[in-house]
Amino acid sequence: MQSYTIGQAARLLGVSPDTARRWADAGKVATHRDESGRRLIDGRDLAAFSVEIAQNGTGEDEPSVTSVRNAFPGIVTAVTLGDVAAQVEIQAGPHRLVSLLTREAVEELGLEVGMQATARVKATSVHVDRF
Known about the structure:
Elements (H helix, E strand, L loop, with lengths): L2 E3 H8 L3 H9 L6 E2 L5 E4 H14 L14 E11 L3 E8 L2 E8 H7 L6 E7 L2 E6 L1
Antiparallel strand pairs: 1-3, 2-3, 4-5, 4-7, 5-6, 7-8
Helix pairs in contact: 1-2
């Protein structure tokens, strides 16, 4: 499972690294340390936290975040596979994006909950890029 540094988590959540650090210090999201002492957040924990703050807010007055050129970097929060089609949900800061694509595309990208992805939106079509 992929883990994220405080800085990476902050970017995915659409907040400053200081805000992400405060949330970690307050126990709002669990962290662990790697071998070099950096604090990391498990991808599944970050995915769950991103959904929680998008639905319930954080209790803090944070400025809203907008996308640039219709690119929404975020974290995969759900993957539902059918026989042919698939549904992928990405939480990009306060934005929840849902994309319907082929099962083959999801498997080729290796998409799973907790990993970083970017939803690119043009008209009604959403394309998902894997990092």
